Amino acid sequence: MNTCLAPCPVVFDLDGTLIDSAPDIHATVNAVLRIHQIAPLTLDQVRSFIGGGVDLLWRRVIAATGLPAEAHRDLVASFMTRYHDATALTRLYPNVAETLGVLADRGHPLGICTNKPMRPTKALLEHFRLASVFAAVIGGDSLPQRKPDPAPLRAAFSLLGADPVKPLGLYVGDSEFDAECAKNTDVPFLLFTRGYRKSDPSEMHHTARFDDFADLPGLIEQQSEIARA
What we know:
Number of helices: 9
Oligomer: single chain
Number of strands: 8
Shape: elongated
CATH class of the largest domain: Alpha Beta
CATH architecture of the largest domain: 3-Layer(aba) Sandwich
CATH topology of the largest domain: Rossmann fold
């Protein structure tokens, strides 16, 4: 596996990693379901559907509610009209802003690689005043491929100046999609354990794991020390 020397590029997932956006996604899903007179889903249900992008989210919603599969396109369109600027209920995880500042001050190029569409991704980064922190942002509709395909993560590393074929960098995420994407890209994966994963961390590919962003700069330093050894 590739490792890096500081200050190496660090790319982050968004939902369930930097931000807890499940409450906004939950409210937006239920707003669409109300139009169709369907009983609302719980927050835990919707949280379990997050990770593979909007299309997969709605395939799971359809399966859970019994809505007709042929309504998928219209449901996604109705959802997206409300989702573009859904920020009111979303929160940064503790110590995220401070940690991003530390990494930027140390010279790490920072990026985002998410399956969330680009427009709501940018809206959230602007909402939290983080847009200027990230030199590369790849959304779920930036390329034909989505995570766990390595293409989006390779694109993010490339924008940060890394070799897209053998990027010397780190990926930080929370889900099985992120873990598999890092494995497919052959980069170390740092697993945030307070996100939206469905598996036990011991069952997931990862280089190291953490539950507090205050610990992340130290983990990144450790990876650099391993690379120097």
